[in-house]
Design goal:
The protein is an alpha+beta fold and 484 residues long. It has two domains: 7-105, Beta Barrel (OB fold (Dihydrolipoamide Acetyltransferase, E2P)), CATH 2.40.50; 128-171 and 206-471, Bira Bifunctional Protein, Domain 2 (BirA Bifunctional Protein, domain 2, 2-Layer Sandwich). The chain is built from 14 helices and 16 strands. Strands 6-10-11-16-15-14-13-12 form an eight-stranded mixed sheet. The longest helix has 23 residues, at 128-150. Bound molecules: 4-amino-1,4-dioxobutan-2-aminium adenosine-5'-monophosphate and magnesium ion. 4-amino-1,4-dioxobutan-2-aminium adenosine-5'-monophosphate (4AD) binds at residues 166-167, 207, 209, 230, 239-240, 243, 245, 247, 407-412, 451-453, 455, 457-458.
């Protein structure tokens, strides 16, 4: 069965293959004039033209060569007579591996909406758009591991099931093997988690950071790359209930080292895709261009996809403090004209509309905002000294904001001072009993350290230009949806 030549290998190295008899297998993208099959096997953006001699072919077989049928073809590879392709395969044998009855098949050979395709996630990867997105997604994942390996980091597998809330935001999915209709109860009537599988309450992880800190304080430089879960009911084009996060954590790093790492890392991922996935990027670039033709001018992007990616790689990210961001926003046109939906006030979190203004209007490039008010950030972020012209307490936090996406990275320098950390935890109602080990890291051989989390899907969205996060993960999990 496996004696086949892949379409990519043929299209990229046909000089050495012309005149040879080859077997190819794949899915029919189109069948023209009862003669020309455009065959795609997923290895490449492009299709191989397979030429069928319909007069010689069994009629039953001929009838089954249709859109998205799976076929095996054997024949000689020759230089193509027609325009549009360099080579074609003259099929001597055609076998239908899996027919597709078009009357019942949900996909049709025409443009179909993203919303419709989302419901057909078991077939959507056969389309040009989704196969391009998922090849690039793989490429970015590879580039993540390559970057860290090349730079001396160790990949740490942090647990999926935990007993702690790393972000202290309470957005967790409970893990239990109780019969939920009748869980054992204590005498007081509360659910008795001592009788549960782990003998305590547990949940799916929201972040591997706290365990990554354990790794950093022994191995120096570590990173995690795994699924994380958030039970936040945000039905937006940027939120998933299950998403993948990459979290480097580095000993002896401060917030400035952390920002340098974030910028260099983002650029290296984009660079890798520009270098290795140009066919996919060109296809996606044209796809956006076509979509934008029907949009009003002010909604169109002012740069194409590839141009945007090059721009990000070639230019330095802007770096500002939260306080500077607030001052800029309050001086901005949309603020003065009352165009922002949410208020801008020192101490309040920046909303997506504010971030978009800074990135897309003011600086027109990625922006790293740092030193946020302590009251709106997580308990583990390092408290800054009082600063001049800053009205309240800040922490050494940073968010990296990207055009069209908003926040792709959130990170910080970590609070390494035991007394300050305990004070913060008390203030924010983070229970010490749950995190006794996190506190001990500060007690024994601690040191300054920092790290961040990159939302993998948001980066895939940025690099592919896809408008909705549900279209860059194979099987999205969102409120009300866990199909497939
Ligand atoms: O800013 P967040 O919540 O930071 C943390 O979890 C830290 N523990 C990271 C660290 O310092 N090690 O999440 C990090 C990133 C966000 O910037 C965003 O890109 C992504 O994760 N993210 C989501 N992506 C998709 N769907 C969601 N619901 C997301 N929530 C966060
Ligand atoms: Mg964040």
């Amino acid at each position: 069965m496996s004696k086949r030549t892949e379409v990519k290998a043929i299209l990229e190295g046909y000089e050495g293959l012309i005149g040879q008899e080859l077997t190819v297998m794949g899915w029919v993208r189109a069948f023209r004039s009862n003669r020309f099959i455009a065959l795609n096997d997923g290895t490449s953006m492009n299709t191989l033209q397979v030429v069928v001699d319909f007069e010689q072919l069994d009629e039953e077989v001929l009838k089954q060569i249709s859109f998205h049928a799976c076929v095996k073809a054997t024949g000689k590879l020759v230089e193509s007579q027609g325009a549009g392709q360099d080579v074609e395969l003259l099929a001597e044998q055609i076998e239908i591996l899996g027919a597709t009855n078009l009357e019942e098949y949900p996909l049709q050979p025409k443009q179909q909406s993203m919303e419709f395709l989302r419901e057909k996630a078991h077939f959507r990867m056969r389309t040009n758009t989704f196969s391009a997105v998922f090849r690039i997604r793989h490429g970015i994942a590879y580039a993540v591991h390559k970057y860290f390996n090349d730079n001396g980091y160790f990949y740490l597998h942090t647990p999926i099931i935990t007993g702690s809330d790393a972000e202290g935001a309470g957005e967790m999915f409970r893990v239990t093997n109780f019969d939920i209709d009748k869980p054992p109860r204590t005498e007081e009537g509360a659910v008795d988690f001592e009788q549960d599988f782990f003998e305590k309450p547990t949940n799916l992880t929201v972040s591997g950071q706290l365990q990554a800190e354990i790794g950093a304080l022994a191995l120096g430089k570590v990173y995690t790359f795994g699924p994380t879960f958030r039970a936040e009911k945000s039905n937006t084009s940027r939120h998933l209930a299950e998403f993948w996060m990459i979290e480097p954590e580095v000993a002896f790093y401060d917030i400035f080292d952390n920002m340098d790492l974030a910028e260099d890392f983002c650029k290296s991922l984009i660079h890798h895709i520009l270098e290795h996935y140009s066919a996919e990027l060109e296809f996606l670039d044209q796809r956006i261009e076509k979509m934008e033709r029907n949009m009003p001018k002010e909604q169109r992007r002012n740069m194409g996809l590839i141009e945007t990616l090059r721009f990000v790689v070639d230019n330095e990210f802007e770096r500002i403090t939260y306080t500077e961001a607030v001052n800029l926003l309050r001086k901005s046109k949309p603020y003065k004209k009352g165009k922002f939906e949410y208020g801008v006030e020192w101490g309040k979190d920046l909303q997506a509309e504010h971030e978009r203004y800074l990135v897309e209007k003011k600086f027109k490039k990625p922006v790293i905002v740092r030193d946020y008010p302590a009251s709106i950030k997580a308990f583990y972020m390092r408290m800054n000294d009082e600063q001049e012209n800053v009205p309240g307490k800040t922490v050494a936090a940073m968010d990296v904001l990207f055009p069209g996406i908003g926040e792709v990275i959130g990170g910080s320098q970590r609070e390494e001072r035991l007394d300050v950390l305990r004070e913060r935890m008390a203030e924010m109602d983070v229970p010490e009993e749950e995190l006794w080990w996190y506190l001990e890291l500060r007690k024994f051989g601690g040191c300054p350290h920092a790290g961040f989390g990159l939302g993998f899907e948001r980066m895939v969205q940025f690099i592919t230009g896809m408008g909705n996060i549900r279209d860059v993960i194979a099987f999205p999990r969102t409120p009300g949806n866990a199909e497939f």
